[in-house]
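anyone seen this seq b4? input:
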Amino acid sequence: MTRPNHGESGIWDMALQNIRTQSKKGDLLLDLGCGVFVWNLPKNFETTVIRVDKNPDVKPDYVFDLNAAISFTDKSFDGILAMEVIEHLENPFHFLRECCRIAKRFIVITTPDPDTPKGRTWLNEDAYFNYNHILAVPSHLIRRYAFTRGFGMANINRNVANYIITLKRISDEIKEGQYF
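predicted toks r here
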């Protein structure tokens, strides 16, 4: 199964490449807001993906509302995948805090890029009503907030409408009071 046509060409391939770069054999990954998509990883990849969504109809492994606390223990997953999710959440910084808490090593996030004309079309008033987009989250805010939680930017890729940011744990120290 492939991802629905939400986002622009190549976004899923770029995200998968970032996941492959960060992952190791035997890793446990968490796909937050998985939707109907199941990662079609190569058989030799030997990685387990746990799927989470708020909609039980998509048959996730766990049903969670990502606007609330994510019910996993600290550092319980090697990596977190959040593909086209953060723009749908009421509080993206709460979501980032939760991702940083439960990720041991890395986080991969994709979202419409408000710094591009095409990305802004996914975030305008029509998109809000048609796709339930709530808030644009520029990459510099994700980088800055994640840094306060011990994550640095491993890389960022862009296409005409989206960006993919890969965050990597650089410290276990939380820098309280340094949010913005």
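Residues 11-169 form a domain with the Rossmann fold fold (CATH 3.40.50.150). The first strand starts at residue 28 and ends at 32. kinda curious what u guys think
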